[in-house]
Amino acid sequence: MTATTAVSAPGTGAAATGAPPPVVRFEKVNKAYGSVRAVTDLDLTLYPGETVALLGPNGAGKSSSLDLLLGLRHPDSGRVEVFGTTPRQAIVRGRVGAMLQSGCLMEEVTVRELVGLACDLHPKGHPVDEVLERAGITEIASRKVNKLSGGQEQRVRFAFATAGASDLIVLDEPTTGMDVSSRQTFWGAIREQAKQGRTILFATHYLEEADAVADRVIVLHRGRVLADGSSAEIKAMAGARRISFELDGPVDETALRALPALTGIEISGRTVRIRSTDADATVHAVYGLGLYPHGLEVTGLGLEQAFLAITDAAAAVEESAR
Amino acid sequence: MRTLVKLEIARTLRNRKFMFFTVVYPSVLFLLIAGSADADDRVPGTRLSMPLYYMVAMASFGALTAGLMGNGERIAKEREGGWTRQLRLTPLPGRGYVGAKIAVGAVATLPSIVIVFVVAAVAKGVRLDAAWEWPALTAAIWAGSLVFAALGVAIGYLASGDAVRPLTMIIYFGLSILGGLWMPTTSYPRWLENIGDYLPTHAYTALGQAIELGGAPHAKDVALLVGYLAVFAGGAAWLYRKDTRKA
Predict the structure, then answer these.
(1) How far apart are CA A52 and CA A25, in angstroms?
(2) What's the pLDDT score for residue A115?
(3) Cα–Cα 20 to 30 A to A102, which of A19, A51, A268, B203?
(4) Cα A38 to Cα A33, A60, A204, distances in angstroms
């Protein structure tokens, strides 16, 4: 089995209430390019107000999934619904704003002209100045679009995606090419959008971003959903806490190895390093053994390692199944 | 949608290189081709003088070039670059995109037509029988050029990358030569002339020639051009939608 079964409900618990109609629904969606399967039996439901990260390495099917969601590609089989209708209809009604990972913008026009176009095309368009301000590009509004840095271009794309009062905002690896400070500003703007009740879906392989921004993380691997839960849950799944301490007295290795929630242990001299899925239980048990650990440290593994652990495990399962 | 049309026109006018060649090229060609022709030389089978014939032919040819070349390559480039993908994530309908591109073609061609006329009148002493024929000719050639702007959009969606230039060239030369833009089709073998009669380029020049002779354009030519416009614009819009599917 894949890790999908380990975390059942989506992070926000919106599914549990069952009340709100889903924003996005994928039902058994398949998409292949020639012999390459990009998306396999994908089931996915997004609920209103969620901020969801679509996480996975290159080739995991993130961009393909977003293309299907936006109607830029059509599934070979299965169904994609956005706000209960087709992706195209949802876009025509102004319910979806989207920012693609790459692709040129219109050349030889200024930032203001381009963003103005997006505001004009959107049925519930915002005033241009407001959109420019929110995207932090007021200063570069009179610059030509083809003379921007990578990070600036991404912010223009973001403005393009948020030019109107859309209910769902889709972002494909939005911070590519941004420096650290513009990333922070950018995610601030995204949080602002989320606060207004919008549903946000973004693809990323910047794992710390998924961890920091999303309240639900969906891990894709080879076109399938590998895990779906809060980032805390995802980390927990992969034994994602590191506990380290030193012991004064003799080290009883057998007792330590029997600690609860343990996924890995490393003992060198009197220093003990443990990986645990439940740091609270493990630490409690350490004291329970009558030990007095010094310099006790509990650190998160970060989503990166968690994610590596999950995808490695899935690859191993697939290998053994052959 | 009006914003898109305005933007498309603004960026075309800002593209100085494109505008320069679009505007100047037909006049240069006119001088090269009609340079040696005498005002008394007649086009075989008609009472048109050679310089007058070439003036209309080159104005038409220039308008055709601007529409076909300008749109085809730019659209193929935009598709490849990903701009049209981004645009498809807005509620803009396919006809809006095609309409804006045709409008751009129209804006680029008008000055080129006027300049050919001015050059012909000044350098070769071309005169028309009545003053109304000048604005009528301008309007006819301008309106007719929309057909080729629409064809350009369709080509931009039909071909991509390296294929777009050769395809445009083949269509461009084929239509120009067979349609009698460069030399009167009356000098072709009978069967080729018959084919030429039904090409949009032929109907397009016939439009101008009818006015040159002091008459109204033939209904058949107008109908042919309207038909071609519908086919090309409809085809372009259809290809835009199909491209959405394929992406």
Answers:
(1) 14
(2) 94
(3) A51
(4) 7, 7, 17
Block means of pLDDT (10 residues each) for chain B, 247 residues, are: 86 83 86 76 73 85 83 84 86 86 86 91 84 89 91 87 86 86 76 86 86 85 94 88 56
Selecting from A74, A94, A106 the residue whose C-beta is nearest the C-beta of B245 gives: A74
Q: Residue A83's pLDDT is what?
A: 94
Nearest CA in chain A to B16: A108
For testing contact with chain B, the best of A74, A88, A107, A131 (most B CBs within 10 A): A107
Residue A238, pLDDT score: 61
Ramachandran area for residue A103 (φ above 0: left; ψ -120 to 50: alpha; else beta) = left
3-state secondary structure of B77: helix
d(CA B198, CA B67): 20
Position B180 scores a pLDDT of: 77
Is A65 in contact with A39 (CB distance < 8 Å)?
A: yes
Q: What is the ipTM of this complex?
A: 0.81
Nearest CB to B90; choose among A67, A73, A121? A121
Contact with chain A for residue B13, Cβ under 8 A: no
> Closest partner residue to B11 among A88, A108, A157, by Cβ?
A108
pLDDT band at A113 (very low <50, low <70, confident <90, very high): very high
From A233, A239, A252, select the one nearest A281 (Cα to Cα). A239
In the numeric block, the tokens 């209309």 are attached to B56
Mutate to test the interface with A, among B8, B86, B95 (most CBs of A within 10 A): B86
Instruction: For residue A101, report the phi and psi dihedrals to the nearest 5 degrees.
Output: -65, -40
Residue B241 confidence (pLDDT): 73
> How does pLDDT run across A234-257, given as a tens digit for each residue?
777 665 688 999 988 788 888 888
Sequence-distant (6+) residues with CB within 8 A of A78 are A26, A27, A28, A29, A30, A41, A42
Of A153, A137, A133, A134, nearest in space to A145 by CA: A153
